[in-house]
Amino acid sequence: MSHPHISLTRFLIEEQRAGRVNAELRLLVEVVARACKTISIAVGKGALGGVLGEAGTGNIQGEAQKKLDVIANDVLLEANAWGGHLAGLASEEMDHSMPIPDVYPRGNYLLLFDPLDGSSNIDVNVSVGTIFSVLRCPEGVTTPADEHYLQPGTEQVAAGYCVYGPQTTLVLTVGHGTHAFTLDREVGSFILTTRGMRIPEETKEFAVNASNQRFWEAPMQRYVGDLLAGKDGPRGKDFNMRWIASMVADVHRILTRGGIFSYPLDSKCAPKGGKLRLMYEANPMSLLVEQAGGAASTGRQRMLEVQPNGLHMRVPVFLGSKAEVEAAVSYHRSHDAGAA
Ligand SMILES: O=P(O)(O)OC[C@H]1O[C@](O)(COP(=O)(O)O)[C@@H](O)[C@@H]1O
Ligand SMILES: [Mg+2]
Ligand SMILES: [Mg+2]
């Protein structure tokens, strides 16, 4: 094995010794990681475990829930309810946040999660994942409600995702870099495989659902038009495209080798403010990307400075290689300034 055997537990203890996390946050991250292991096993079973297909229920997003959306949500609820590190939690699959019942030991953190990201790929054996974000519970609040979660992404004390693909990989930040841990299925523990992921500033790879092109705003049309024009166009270089339609998998590729991921505003999702959700998709991914030297924006504002106005608020998303995100933003800025 090429990597020194640093388990997630040992890594977090070292972070605690260095004063970068406290014991409570360390144990919270461990609980979430353990839940991801359980979800990874369920995902891995697929049809054999009867976990594919529709659950027959819907969520506040107006989406039909998949069985694995519900299973993953239940695993995270169960694992975190009695963990003792939380004051409350919120999920893509639950209308409102849930304060930890006072029969359980309570903690000082708020956990938000997308229990199963990439739901449209579950039944076709393509990578899916879990995304999470951790905030502090405001001082003096013992029974947190939805409004206590409405903190900008800069307030996150930890963020991560776990991608369930050929490998199960947990990617984590506690505010000091972004690090990847691969699940050693024989041992059953996450092992540090990349310390300090870095996203190249420049890239030749973009990810967008191009089937939405006719619904995009003018600056987005021009931005992608110039990417597709390649080296003979204003960008002077050829670009390649990828779209897995699982945000976790697309972002993992970008954290690994660079690129830009975007889910822009389009006339279909504009009434909702966008497609992807700020609190448990865009914000955690943006913190991971920024901690790896990348950038994240709505196209018009740094993502982590967006003031949330609801638990399930949606936003346009541009994230990845710094220079490329800045390029995408500049198309929107010059358009808004009437210069283009
Ligand atoms: O179906 P589209 O338009 O390609 O959208 C794909 C996007 O939607 C998502 O699946 C939304 O997340 P959920 O699966 O958690 O609802 C993202 O993972 C992905 O980036
Ligand atoms: Mg999602
Ligand atoms: Mg989801």
UniProtKB/TrEMBL annotation:
It holds the Pfam family FBPase_C. It comes from the Bacteria. Binds 2 magnesium ions per subunit. One of its GO terms (cellular component) is cytosol. It is found in: Cytoplasm. GO terms for molecular function: fructose 1,6-bisphosphate 1-phosphatase activity; magnesium ion binding. Mg(2+) 2 binds at D114, D117, E281. It is an enzyme of class 3 (hydrolase). It catalyses: beta-D-fructose 1,6-bisphosphate + H2O = beta-D-fructose 6-phosphate + phosphate. Substrate binds at D117, G118, S119, S120, N209, K275. SUPFAM superfamilies: Carbohydrate phosphatase. Keywords: Carbohydrate metabolism, Cytoplasm, Hydrolase, Magnesium, Metal-binding. Pathway: Carbohydrate biosynthesis. Residues 7-194 form the Fructose-1-6-bisphosphatase class I N-terminal domain. Homotetramer. Belongs to the FBPase class 1 family. This is Fructose-1,6-bisphosphatase class 1. It comes from Thermomonas fusca.
